Amino acid sequence: MCRGIRRCTELGDRPEMWSRTSPLPPPGWFVDENLKFAEVLRVGARGDVRRSREMLMQVRGEEMREWYIDHGQNSGVFRNRHYRVVVGRTITALRGAPPSSMVDAVYRRDRYRCRYCGLRLFPIEVLRAYECTIGTDVFAATAKNASHGAALVFRATYDHVDPLSCGGRHVPENIVTGCYSCNFGKGSYTLTQLGLDDPRAQPLPSGDWDGLVSLLPEFRNRSTDPNVLRTGGL
After folding, report:
1. Cβ-contact 57, 1 below 8 angstroms
2. Neighbour tally for 184: CB within 10 Å
3. CB distance 112 to 209 below 8 Å
4. pLDDT (tens digit, 9 = 90+) per residue, 71-129?
5. 44, 80, 109, 152 - which has most CB atoms within 10 Å?
6. Is there a contact between 122 and 113 (Cβ–Cβ < 8 Å)?
7. Nearest to 35 by CA among 150, 115, 132
8. Which range of residues forms the domain containing residue 77?
9. Quick one: which of 220, 221, 163 has its CA closest to 192?
10. What pTM, to 2 d.p., does this model score?
């Protein structure tokens, strides 16, 4: 556990070895767990609830949760402690959230991948649809009540590359898709404060990964929850 100590054991104490693309790249085994979790969702969308529950138990949820809580969400604090870069803050910082239509467009543009660490991600409507299908006793989608680590580390969110507190705007050019670990690790720091390269300078992700939004019609057809039937889980 790295909270309350001077250095993160996962990040290490050699800044020259720190990633320039992600506040803290996830462990390599996250990739295999991501593939397993995607198959869990596919089986659930087909209606095989018992099998999906069994498969979900094989995904290393508790280990992922612990990594996120102890390391991922705190990485920016340790990086900034090293770089000690001070930036001015905007007194009249923009508040609120960007329109959901803009966020959805950003997710599609970025192929539902974290622009920092590259993880494949799942939007909240897919996770909520699965929750309604599988039952909240084994899977809750929201971070506050998340019952499985996959709902934390694989959930898509958005990041303002130039923080709102430093004058960043709610525009697609300033917003990228992020995983929870990279998003909360970066926090309201600037790239310079964390020693990171600009993710927008890298080529857009390629491939056909769609965050499994293509499963939403199947989930809707099997769900009795009116929210899922009406909005796909939003």
Report:
1. no
2. 20
3. yes
4. 999 999 999 999 998 887 776 566 788 999 999 999 999 999 999 999 999 999 999 99
5. 44
6. no
7. 150
8. 21-231
9. 163
10. 0.91
What would the pLDDT profile of 158-181 be if each residue is shown by its tens digit? 999 999 988 899 999 999 999 999
Tokens of 194: 């964390």
| Phi/psi-derived region of residue 211, left when phi > 0, alpha when psi is between -120 and 50, beta in every other case | left
Is residue 122 within 8 Å of 211, Cβ to Cβ?
Answer: yes
- 124: number of Cβ within 10 Å: 18
Task: Look at the chain and count its residues.
Answer: 234
Distance separating alpha carbons of residues 69 and 210, to the nearest angstrom: 27
194 falls within a domain: yes
- Pairing type for strands 156-160 and 175-179 reads antiparallel
40: in domain: yes
The verdict on residue 5 lying in a domain is: no
Count of domains observed in the chain: 1
